[in-house]
# Entry
Amino acid sequence: MAVKRIRLPLSHDDVRGLRIGEVVSASGPLVTGRDAVQMRALDYHDRGKVVPKELEGATLFHCGPIMARGPNGWTVVAAGPTTSARMDKAGPEMIRTFSVRAVIGKGGMSQDVLEAMREVGCVYLAATGGTAVSLAESLPRVRGVEWEDLGMAEAMWLLEAENLGPLVVAMDAHGNSLYEDVRRSLKRS
Amino acid sequence: MSVIKLPESIEDVVVNLLRLANTKLPQDIGWALESAAAWEPNAIASTQLGAVLDNVRKAGLLGRPMCQDTGIPVFYVKGGYDPSIADAIARGVERATREIPLRPNTVDPLTRENDGRNLGRGMPVIHHLPSDGDYTEITVLVKGAGSENMTRLGMLDPSDGVAGVMRFVVDAVLDAGGRPCPPGVVGVGIGGMADECVAMAKRVLARPIDEENPDPVLREMEEDLFVRLNGSGLGPMGLGGSATVLAVRIDKAHCHTASLPVAVNIGCWATRRASVRLGAGDAVYSQGAWL
Ligand code: SF4
# Structure
């Protein structure tokens, strides 16, 4: 299957050009963030406190990586996607507040998130669950870390991707969800 | 049952078991994934299976855990039982967490405190299976949260019968969708009491999937469920396709005449296990469990 190469961060037009069922590999900067990052980012924003600028228009990777600190700084040891449904509740607000352009995760997100994605211009890219070694290899550079006090798995890691993939466009900015399509046509007999 | 004095190095044995289980997929699971990839007609699904196989190869080469969720290890100790084995296993888990390294996953359920050792109250999980052999076998099954969280127990009505049991299993797997990282192994327990029913559903995941179920009725149910689930269209990671499960394994136990318990415990594509046999000679390791 043809794999489309995409460059991060995605522009609004890039996002609109992606359709569910496409398979891509991504290069460029991204940030990790899951439950704790999402909660703190929205809380700080509400209270007018400074939020790392990398979140604006970001590619947000739902991932709690295993990191190692060597003589030349941090490296990614293992970085698989975590279950995105845990971020469903504050997901729409997160996407709207920071104009998140892409979310990378596994398992998909709710209809409310899909609606926010359509409105803002954001896509959901499904990474293959559990493939932590391969994905870590495609994250060769660590540019920094924010909110390290949240712990290794919950901190916001600023990473550089090189052909990270395969990523399946599973929810697009036109209101389509591959998960919904699959669910609707499941044969239970 | 005889009490057997275990070798001093049981702690080392546990570190070896955890390293083996986390870095190398058992051959039967690997073959099943490869054959699923060869048969898969859906193009997106093929990319997912390809990514999984690629990842397994790299993990083996680099000696790294194949998934970042190194789970909670479940130990099955079969045969002679020296009570000191629990402490030795705990020391092994703590060392493996540091040395391999494994992700520190165990927390207090309420405060969510994590002391980083993968230990704590009730940990490590150890089940003792009596046997009259003159050796002791330890099998570890590594269980991640993505699949464990999809566990279901149903106390069905006896009148629901076999059809009700089948329906319950199909719904449990399809409702779980992509969350347990399919395709994996579906463990099913039928009968027993509630706790034993769930225990059976998990224990069968520790058995090689290429080993035939000795019970012809259960075997037929396994085959039937395998066909139904792989015809459902859920596919790898719930993104659509054919490969939804690698195998279905069922065990049963007698239950109360007014009960029909059914439990489903799912193993992800990374159904990780390793065993060791300790007897008079050297420790013998295997990833085709003897359970
Ligand atoms: S379900 Fe299994 S393969 Fe997927 S992330 Fe969890 S442990 Fe890893």
Observations:
- Chain A has six helices and nine strands.
- The two ends of chain A are 30 Å apart (CA to CA).
- Helices of chain A lie at 12-16, 35-46, 91-98, 111-120, 132-137, 178-184.
